[in-house]
Amino acid sequence: MTIPVVTAQGTAPACSVEYTVTSQWNTGFQGSVKITNNMAALSGWSLSFEFAGGQKVTQGWNAQWSQSGTTVTAVNESYNGSLATGASVSAGFLASWPGSGSNDVPASFKLNGTTCNVDTQPTPPPSGPPAGGGAPALHVAGDKLVDGDGKTRRLLGVNRSGAEFMCVQGRGIFDGPVDDTAIKAIADWKANTVRIPLNEECWLGLSNIQSAYGGVNYVNAVKDLVARVEAHGLTPILDLHWTYGQYTGNSAGCSDVHATCQKPMPDRQYSPSFWTSVANTFKDDQAVAFDLFNEPYPDRATSTTTQAWQCWRDGGTCPGIGYQVAGMQDLVDAVRGTGARNVVLAGGLAYSNDLSQWLTYRPADPTGNLVAAYHGYNFNTCSSESCWNSTLAPVAAQVPLVAGEIGENTCSHSFVDQVMKWFDDRGLSYVGWTWNTWDCSSGPSLISNYDGTPTSYGTGLRDHLRAINP
User: What is the structure's pLDDT at 406?
Assistant: First the structure.
């Protein structure tokens, strides 16, 4: 019999997708997609579409194929992620189907969150930071972070939460204002750093994210924020905060497979693609630092500390974690594979609170621009000078150490005062959590208003920064 060939194709200023059923039988079929990019060049791509006839992808090639419910997602492989303007890429798959009814062509396709086969063109991305931005390019020199003139730069500032959760919740991109006035308020605290948590599904524009808040719109919003942060002389740290992968084990934050909470480790399916894309976006701007993964906690899933550290560095199949893990080495490799030399931060176990074996298991970085990251709260295990002396000091003697998050849930600042003194005495860096107007006992939140009015907790960081940077 003649096998029908079904093709969906249309004019596509932004992108086009040709969908073809190349062969079909009673319980399955073989299909292919040809993607043509007419937007700005892409360093990584993710195609999504919906099946409406009970079809189920069973395997594929030239892409990493997955399906959740009716939603099919194809993410580039490492060898075909670059897609220049006007360039095309093809991928194929095998799928099962009920065999009754019609094997319909999906109604729409999205490439990095942009709907293809329609006569719309996304807004061109901004060209980069405005001329004259005051944030210096950074690199590692021994145990210090230094600028282009070799001058030490301690990273002292605040976290700006929001972009990790608003988009995946369908509520926007940022929580509160991020305009020039809002960034100036941070600078007025005499901060020199803003850490910006991100969501990998939103950046990649996966199908579960509303297009208004994902893909090119999300990327452009982050680029705009980075430009404003740098224009005020502040160092931006881009942090991979929420990621894909279902984890329901010890200390699980949620049972959702999607990036709606903190997972124990980044996922191999999307996290390397995220960092490849982010690194390609900012590799010409070494004022931007990359925090590979917010708060790893494979130690809660594995039975031994050795297993946890091996999982942390090497990824793969990790005990107690049901998805394939991307280790810190995978993420360093993804960043460096783009040619990016930006400073990279790697937090330790126990939600970045345990750095006891960080030096033993640290990933290899051919550029030497690797930094250790620590998170410290009053309720953490390592929250005393004795622990800092025994576990943090040896790390800080060999590589730069940045406390990417410090805070307390007391609506006071006695604990962060201790942290800042210990770090000040050793010339180290710290960044307070968080510049959001939440309840300081549950956030904890540094401010009660985006004009910079501090909470009783935030007063400690503000006054300290002003005292050491008059």
Answer: 98
Confidence of residue 173 (pLDDT cuts 50, 70, 90): very high
The model's pLDDT over 67-109, given as tens digits with 9 standing for 90+, comes to 888 888 888 887 888 888 888 898 888 888 887 777 888 988 8
Q: What's the order of all strands across the beta sheet hosting 71-75? A: 64-68, 71-75, 46-50, 109-111, 114-115
d(CA 86, CA 49): 21
Q: Which residue has the tokens 């993804």?
A: 334
Read off the tokens for 143: 């145990």
Check residue 209 and give left, alpha or beta (phi > 0: left; psi -120 to 50: alpha). Answer: beta
pLDDT at 465: 98
